[in-house]
Amino acid sequence: MTQQGRFITLEGGEGVGKSTNLSFVRDYLHSRGIRVTTTREPGGTPVAERIRALLLANDEQEPLDDLAELLLIFAGRAQHLARVIRPALARGEWVVSDRFTDATFAYQGSARGIAPERIAMLEQFVQQGLAPDLTLWLDMPVSYAADRLAARGGERDRFERERGDFFERVRQGYRARAEQAPERMVAVDASQSLEQVQRDIAQRLDQQLASWN
Ligand code: TMP
């Protein structure tokens, strides 16, 4: 029987370097002989990417209701789980996702103000016990991340247009999640040099691989 793969997620606010570090994690696991599927949320399948577009669009005519936003996120997640995450894990591949449900607790819960119990209900309904085995939370002060985002330029999506205090609440939300599940979710100081961030990630992955073997 094929052994079930592991599920790793990367989390963090805007501009903390998730994409660069996602590639790093993928390459690192490859170098250890592990087959990896990389993906992202919102999105990860064609249908879920259409839901992502709805979530990120700046629609001046009709603001998206907070509850509708939450349900769209879980609708995309259900599709993503069914079409990508569960099949890959069942094939024995490891899945590395740029964001997952911790983001929902941080953004829709802590930042938008939806009660965490309601989110936990949907989490249970949609995921039925499936949760990440390891989450790397790339953490940095909101002001650093805002500078990086500004330097990147381009048009801002619906979330990136939020104000600084929104991102402070996102950060607090992630911190609370990490405190609740310290074995699974580890903070990585993303304000360090990229080399140091990646050394920290590699060290954590090594520890985790050793404990899983
Ligand atoms: P990205 O910046 O990682 O591409 O994600 C797009 C946005 O989606 C980001 O601003 C955070 C937001 N988001 C939520 O609000 N809740 C969620 O559950 C997820 C996965 C993302």
TrEMBL record:
The keyword Nucleotide-binding applies. GO terms for molecular function: ATP binding; dTMP kinase activity. The keyword Kinase applies. It catalyses: dTMP + ATP = dTDP + ADP. ATP binds at residues 12-19. One of its GO terms (biological process) is dTDP biosynthetic process. Keywords: ATP-binding, Kinase, Nucleotide biosynthesis, Nucleotide-binding, Transferase. Pfam families: Thymidylate_kin (PF02223). Its EC number is 2.7.4.9. GO terms for cellular component: cytosol. Belongs to the thymidylate kinase family. HAMAP family: Thymidylate_kinase. Phosphorylation of dTMP to form dTDP in both de novo and salvage pathways of dTTP synthesis. This is Thymidylate kinase. It comes from Kushneria marisflavi. The gene is tmk.
